[in-house]
Amino acid sequence: MKRYLVGGAVRDILLGRPVVDQDYLIVDATPEAFLRRYRRARQVGKTFPVFMLGSAQYAWPRGDDIHEDLLARDLTINAIAMGDSRQIAGRLHFHPLALPDLRDRILRPCGETSMFDDPLRVYRAARFASSLPDFSPHPELIAQMRAVAACGALDDIFAERVAQEVRKALDAAKPSRFFRLLAETGCLLPWMPELEASRHIPAGPPENHGDNSIFDHMCELVDILAGQPIAGWMAVCHDLGKTLTPQSEWPRHLGHDDAGADVAEELGRRLKLPNRVREAGVAAARLHMKAARYAELRPSTRVDMLTWLHKHEMVEPLFDLVNADSGHNVWPLAKRDLTVMLSVHLPGKQRMRGPASGEKLRGLRCQKLAAADKARETQDAEE
């Protein structure tokens, strides 16, 4: 039995990057022999034998041998295998263009039909553009992505697989490259029509947004929030309500926050995002304008906002978005208020009384925040 480390792990080793995922190819052994040796492995592939052992994935070559497998992969820089078992340790096999493309920082399809063989590769390629920001898409990659989009092949991908690539891109070094490459090649459709529409609508008055479109503004924010997938998804969704503004009202977008909640909800449901991620997008659309004026809000409004955000673990991501979007860093004040608010508890006899207990707790927290505001005002006046 020979075992090869393949794909992104070898690429990252050669680039001097941390290895995250470990995928292996098994050669000269049947799946049955593999299971006899690794009894704790579990099968996850149905039509093609794929096994998980710990966090590592094990599969068998597509085609007759390892060389055919490498030629059938998505991008040349991922078409590399390195011997991992004792008799082949360190031995490299690679696509003829893999090492030159690694050296020249190029994202190139392995073959003429690479993107057609699995249309999800369109989104994977865009995600690699976001995680490898110093790599440039080869013209052949752009051409294949456009052709795949034009023939309708993206319609049949499972939504969850598209969503997984979106979330990985938001966690990457330069998320905007994911969305911009998809936009350039027509691949925002059919899964993200809201973002396609946002490319042609001004983000707001020129004195605030220059000539940026809603899409351009979103791309700026996801880069600021790179590595924060929840805050990044909030950035994607926060201005989607502007896509509903009649053209006669451009460049202003009155009421886009409330209007955007349903748009963000529809996008999240289409992609079948996990509930927390979907709800984060809706909350960003509805609350980002109000949160930017946090210091002006009444104690009751702040308590209601913070209570909901805290329950859904979205306090810090929303205020990170607000800071990136408006430049208003109100997080220190919100953090102080949250600490004050959570320090208030109902006396034992007033608990477990359903809505009445909730309303009582809310009232006490409002009083506590109002007192904290007054103390702060007094201190500021004395200083």
Explain what this protein looks like in three dimensions.
54% of the residues lie in helices and 8% in strands. The chain is built from 19 helices and nine strands. The chain has helices spanning 8-15, 31-37, 66-71, 98-104, 114-117, 121-131, 139-150, 159-170, 175-184, 193-198, 206-209, 214-224, 229-237, 256-270, 275-292, 299-311, 315-326, 331-342, 355-382, and strands at residues 2-6, 23-27, 42-43, 50-53, 56-59, 80-83, 92-94, 106-107, 136-137. The mean pLDDT is 94.
In short:
The chain starts with a strand and ends with a helix. By secondary structure, it is α+β, with helices and mostly antiparallel strands.
Architecture blueprint of SSEs:
Elements: E1 2-6, H1 8-15, E2 23-27, H2 31-37, E3 42-43, E4 50-53, E5 56-59, H3 66-71, E6 80-83, E7 92-94, H4 98-104, E8 106-107, H5 114-117, H6 121-131, E9 136-137, H7 139-150, H8 159-170, H9 175-184, H10 193-198, H11 206-209, H12 214-224, H13 229-237, H14 256-270, H15 275-292, H16 299-311, H17 315-326, H18 331-342, H19 355-382
Parallel strand pairs: 2-5, 8-9
Antiparallel strand pairs: 1-2, 1-6, 3-4, 4-5, 6-7
